[in-house]
Write a structure and sequence with these properties.
3 strands; single chain; Xylose isomerase-like TIM barrel domain-containing protein; 3-stranded parallel β-sheet; mainly alpha; TIM Barrel; 5 helices
């Protein structure tokens, strides 16, 4: 049973955090982080991609199997998976072909779906080998949204 150690007010915001903020030490396995979040009154957690990989490796899971297991842990703890974070260096990245970036995005979409979320956070690109040109960025983002819609 979850305990609430925070005062809650009517119509107040829900409490949430990011998995990476719950610890980076190898002993802090993902299930332990999620359990701690649940026990301390968090309503949801946004998962960082590296936590899926850290969860998959010792359990001999594929990332998709890890996502499915993580989804069941969220359900058991009655907390919400808020999204997957961060699909970075996507739009306007002239150092990696768009086809390769779309392949990576497809893997992320599959992982997000296996984990039970429809949200993938994508921060703005700030690499030196990038463009700010809207004639490149907008079509790339349109292809990304088309890929997500097809999934």
């Amino acid at each position: 049973m979850r305990t609430r150690n925070m005062t809650r007010y009517p119509n107040s915001n829900k409490w949430a955090g990011t998995s990476v903020s719950l610890g980076k030490h190898p002993s802090q396995i993902l299930e332990r982080k999620l359990s701690a979040a649940s026990n301390h009154g968090f309503d949801g957690v946004k998962l960082v991609h590296s936590d899926f990989l850290s969860h998959a490796k010792p359990n001999n899971f594929t990332p998709i199997q890890s996502g499915q297991k993580v989804q069941s842990v969220f359900k058991e703890l009655s907390i919400e998976m808020l999204g997957l974070d961060p699909l970075k260096n996507f739009e306007g990245n002239i150092s990696i072909p768009l086809s390769k970036r779309l392949d990576t995005a497809k893997e992320w979409i599959e992982l997000a779906m296996a984990a039970g979320t429809t949200v993938i956070q994508m921060p703005s690109l700030f690499l030196p080998l990038s463009t700010r040109g809207y004639r490149i960025i907008i079509p790339e983002l349109q292809e990304l949204t088309d890929l997500a819609e097809e999934s």
